[in-house]
Amino acid sequence: MRIIPREAGRITYLIKKSESFSPRQRDLIIGTLLGDGTLEKTRAGKNYCLKIQHSIKQSELVFWKYRQLQNFVLAPPKQQAVNQSLRFRTVSHHELKEFQEMFYPKGKKIAPINIEEMLNPFVLSVWFMDDGNKRIEYGKLQGFHLNTQSFSVKENERLKSAIYKNFGIKCFLQGNHGKIRLYVGAESRDAFRKLIGDLVIPSLQYKLVN
């Protein structure tokens, strides 16, 4: 029986939807949702897809995530001319509903109540690659920021506590233009870098060095 292209595409789509995310892929999704990733509801309104979008400058991060999730993606990243970014989406998947319930319980993204149970070095490294930066002062590396300004003070406290309990790394809540973000200072700077250094992709290693 000859399969026409449209039918072949439909079969591929159904196969991808029937697979389960691996533990590594689940961790990548968690780290991405702590960072810049978003979940979007399908037109049918039953399931969700994961949208990943970064600036062109972070193209290697986009393609790295694409390779990690490729068995759940139908098309490679595409450039968005309007804002000079690269974007791709996963297929809609029933397992993403679980993440929606944790990260979007009332529609707005939050830091989940059970984030401590989910946070491991790989999750932290993905989160840092998305939303982290280094702080240089007087030509010397002072520490690292996790730009958590979209989360509430209570959620930042939750993240701070989870990082300390899981890794012994001390963070501080730091004001930033009327918002709050996390700061890893000199006391835990080296431990933080050692924890995630080997997990950060080569093109983003600059975020960790002086």
Automatic annotation (TrEMBL):
InterPro entries in the record: Homing_endonucl, LAGLIDADG_dom
Boundaries of every Homing endonuclease LAGLIDADG domain copy: 27-192
MF annotations from Gene Ontology: endonuclease activity
Organism: Candidatus Yanofskybacteria bacterium RIFCSPHIGHO2_12_FULL_45_19b
Protein name, as recorded: Homing endonuclease LAGLIDADG domain-containing protein
Domain of life: Bacteria
Residues that span the membrane, as ranges: none
